[in-house]
Amino acid sequence: MKSPPDKITLNALFASFWYQRKLILKLTRREVQARYRGSIFGLFWSLFQPVLMLMIYTFIFSFVFEVRWGKELESRYDFALLLFIGLIVHAFFAECLNRSPRQIHGNIIFVKRIMFPIEIFSWVTICVALFQAAINYLVLQVFFSLVHGTIHWTVLLIPIVFAPLIILTSGICWFLAASGVYFRDINETIQILTLALLFLAPVFYPVSALPPPFRPFIFINPITFIIEQARAVIIWGAMPNWPGLIIYYALALLTAWFGFATFRKFRGRFADVL
């Protein structure tokens, strides 16, 4: 088993993934399979669930409430598409954060093995959430093509748009994983926070619906900018906000480094606390 560099640098951060990529993939596959083990349809549920969700949102908001996002949208299905993009981003972020405080407690047997790289549990959590996000995204694109008869070429930029959120989330996951060892109440706190982030992000409403003085504050929510840029490249076929993405990447790398450094600093004491 290879070991990443001991120095807490950005190189060590990504090396924690690269050196253990095979183990991370194995654990991710095992966790995805375990999620649906015992069910009749197995992994089919990962595809059926987003299809069902999209159908329900389309019916409720487009046909029952006849909600419209704005004058620029003519299709009654577009609201469901916009809503689904926001939910995909939030679901990924919320799943990672909600599972992180329990990572160490749920893997005590590995924590007490000195040579086991326990920092990879955050990568596994992210990969599992990414698997479901990818399935949801596939459903979204199929539905979009059925509604509009085409797909914008700008969807190729989705990995670039989503990558900084993955980097940011990794840092938060490491920090929460370390904090969860010492503070048990953080699990319930994070669940409340992630629910609040759902309504404090432009998931069910556009940023333009807020009074101008409050609009800058909604971008404090880390998923707001990603949701807006994902909608730009998927729905509008527009280019993302490149300067904004560069700033987001910088903040995400800083957050990831801080979370990784915090985890590395306290991991030697986990076994004693547990």
From TrEMBL:
Keywords linked to the UniProt accession: Capsule biogenesis/degradation, Cell membrane, Membrane, Sugar transport, Transmembrane, Transmembrane helix, Transport
Pfam families registered for this protein in UniProt: ABC2_membrane
Main location: membrane
Record membrane topology: Multi-pass membrane protein
Domain ABC transmembrane type-2: 41-266
Compartment list: Cell membrane
Transmembrane segments: 40-65, 77-97, 118-139, 151-177, 189-207, 246-263
Family that this chain belongs to: Belongs to the ABC-2 integral membrane protein family.
Record-given protein name: Transport permease protein
Gene source species: candidate division CSSED10-310 bacterium
Taxonomic lineage of the native organism: Bacteria, Bacteria division CSSED10-310
